[in-house]
Amino acid sequence: MKQIFSMLLAIFACVASQGQQITWTSAKQPLKEIEQLKKIIVAPTFKKKDYSIADFGAIGDGKTKNTVAFRKAIETCNRQGGGRVIVPKGVYLTGAIYLKSNVNLHVSEGATVLFSRDSADYPMVFTRWEGMECINFSPFIYAYKEENIAITGKGLLDGNADNDHWWYWCGARKYGWHEGRPGEQKPARAILHQQMAEEMDPHKRVFGDGNFLRPNFVQPYLCKNVWIAEVKLINSPMWNLNPVLCENVLIEGVKVVSHGPNNDGCDPEASKNVWIRNCYFDTGDDCIAIKSGRDEDGRNIGRLAENHIIENCEMKDGHGGVVIGSEIAGGARNIYALNNVMDSPNLDRALRIKTSSSRGGIIENVFFYNTEVGQYKEAAVRFNMFYEKPGKHIPTIRNIWVENLHVIGGGKYAVLSTAYESSPITDFTMVNCKIDGVKETFKVDYLKNVSLKNVIVNGKEIKSFD
């Protein structure tokens, strides 16, 4: 009897798993799903009461450290039921800011939140670093297990990083590191990788001073109902916007201009119901990169990146415009990018999925619709299953739909794909795509169930990749 019950459980699990995959036959189907998702992802509302940081002792002279004033204002606002914490005009130097439930940090037009260059101003917290859990420097703006939080306003968030502060920790000469200069992340990064591989308790993976793992800029962690609107971010030490394990995230009208190492614009990680709209990205790495954790951590936690909309955004410099990966071991499902514009001689790829057999996971139901591209360097569409070191967890990429992709000045390839023979890219559709100016039409291997409908490259219709 137990054996029969176990067999039934296995069958039900298999059916449930298969039921998650969607086979689209037209663009109308995912467009309907997108409209339903938009009804779920809405900005949180806040009590109509304001708390100015000036009333808590903040001085906007760009020199006085205001960490305590921010903390007192946010804690008071939270304790009294919520509202807006106002940053008035001025330049406010501060250390880490901790957001709490029902608080909207409103950075007024003409206000700058300038973050300290002293690592001591970023106390140790539980965080993720490159998709791995650990104890490290606090992100500059951080929240943990909070609900209904926001960062709004037309002001500026300045991470204050440069080649002499934070960036050189990456160990690259381009960013100020040189032989004999103290501060390089490689040893600590290797230790963290090993600790993750050994599945050490993340709370025992302690870094911070002397380890040179740069903090991210904004990281809500395990939060619900997150809203980030209209602010501008510059000079981040590392990733800019990084909601981790969050649900219902709305990011709109945000501008990210940050060209440091690993300066991804927006990296929603293992999060559900995310809408990024009307934003501008000009970055030192991927503009938007959807993630779900690295290797063992991503697989063990098992949280997908699920139900994401990327809409009406503009991308300039970056390694990729709209990207999935590479820290994607938890998988990704139902990713919709529509009506986005990309154009820069320093943009490497437009649409990119990157992973490896050290990651594993299933990436499925990805829909790119109405993408306008001026120029890029490498490929308009790029699949890569060999992004980093190999492992024993071959990934799956399936059901990818690209429609109305228009490129004026293509780079080396229209489509570039590298996959495993045992795990080909499956169910890949391109419809009404026009790509001009490429040197080579395509370079692909191991693609299965490919459908090309009205795909024109350099003036010639491409009916197959054979």
UniProtKB/TrEMBL annotation:
Keyword entries, A-Z: Glycosidase, Hydrolase
Biological process, per Gene Ontology: carbohydrate metabolic process
Gene Ontology terms, MF aspect: polygalacturonase activity
InterPro entries: GH28_Enzymes, Glyco_hydro_28, PbH1, Pectin_lyas_fold, Pectin_lyase_fold/virulence
SMART domains (alphabetical): PbH1
Family of this protein: Belongs to the glycosyl hydrolase 28 family.
Entry protein name: Glycoside hydrolase family 28 protein
Lineage: Bacteria, Pseudomonadati, Bacteroidota, Sphingobacteriia, Sphingobacteriales
